[in-house]
Amino acid sequence: MQFVRLNGVTIHYQVISAAPSRPRLVFVNSLGTDFRIWRDVVVQLAGDFSILCHDMRGHGLSDTGEASASIETYAADLAALIEHAGFAPAVVCGLSIGGLVAQALHAARPDLVSGLLLADTAPRIGTPEIWSERIRQVEGGGLASIADRVAGGWVTESFRSTPAFAGYRNMLARQPAEGYLGAVAVLRDTDLTSRAPRIDVPTTCLVGAEDVPTPPGQVEALSRMIPGAHYQVVSGAAHLPPIERPDAVADAIRALAARTGADHVRH
């Protein structure tokens, strides 16, 4: 395991190296998960890309930190990690809140970003009322009190009947509650709508066909805000396509990397 102290917190990350000529990918996890949600995508891309994964602060094995976080805090952590790992510029792949982090990173440090995969995300996710209620629920009953409902909304009905679903539910239930609540507050307070039209790198907006938290219409609206963005719907997936359709996500990343000028990517 790899750890580094950045911006006052210890960040858990993983680098999978490829030849120096290979393009670079950076992955950002969703709310209540860690970088393991990208595993089945990563194994398909390893060797063709150098890959950097990390647990956002307050998630997985990373510290929560003492100060109140903002979307800019998460983006600053990621910028520092990319520089520490020597991964600039990179195609940044963010899912849900991770997609917001990717958008904020491009706004703050466009020099670090060669392309964006914005998966199951939007410039604003949910409403302040929804997230304030989520905070009350977790403060009252802990993450276990919401785990079945929230994790159930991540995936399709067929996936909920598999043994793997219990593992992803456990991932949520065992997250640090303080870190989860901090991220929920960030979702409540973040609106990047005015920044989306300024994104000037090749971008793919991808969404599971059965996504409820960020439905296809919302992700398509994001794609229309970003000049030249591609929009892709993944069948057989809900809010977390990397765990249900890693093949489709890996293909989308390969196509996006080719659009960034990395036309030497093998298919």
**Strand percentage, roughly?**
15-25%
**Superfamily at the CATH H level?**
Alpha/Beta hydrolase fold, catalytic domain
* CA(first)-CA(last) distance: 30 Å
CATH-defined architecture = 3-Layer(aba) Sandwich
Low-confidence stretches are 263-267
User: What does the largest sheet look like?
Assistant: 8 strands, mixed
Q: Find the structural class using helix and strand composition.
A: alpha/beta
Helix fraction?
Answer: 40-55%
Task: Provide structural commentary.
By secondary structure, this protein is α/β, with parallel strands linked by helices. The protein has a single domain, classed as Rossmann fold, CATH 3.40.50. 42% of the residues lie in helices and 18% in strands. β1 (2-6) and β2 form a beta hairpin. α2 packs across α3 (97-108) and α4 (128-141) runs antiparallel to α8 (177-189). The protein is globular. Mean pLDDT is 96; it is low at 263-267.
Protein topology:
Layout: E1 2-6, E2 9-16, E3 24-28, H1 39-45, E4 50-54, H2 71-85, E5 90-95, H3 97-108, E6 113-119, H4 128-141, H5 144-152, H6 157-160, H7 163-173, H8 177-189, E7 203-208, H9 216-225, E8 230-234, H10 241-244, H11 246-259
Parallel strand pairs: 3-4, 3-5, 5-6, 6-7, 7-8
Antiparallel strand pairs: 1-2, 2-4
Helix pairs in contact: 1-11, 2-3, 4-8, 5-7
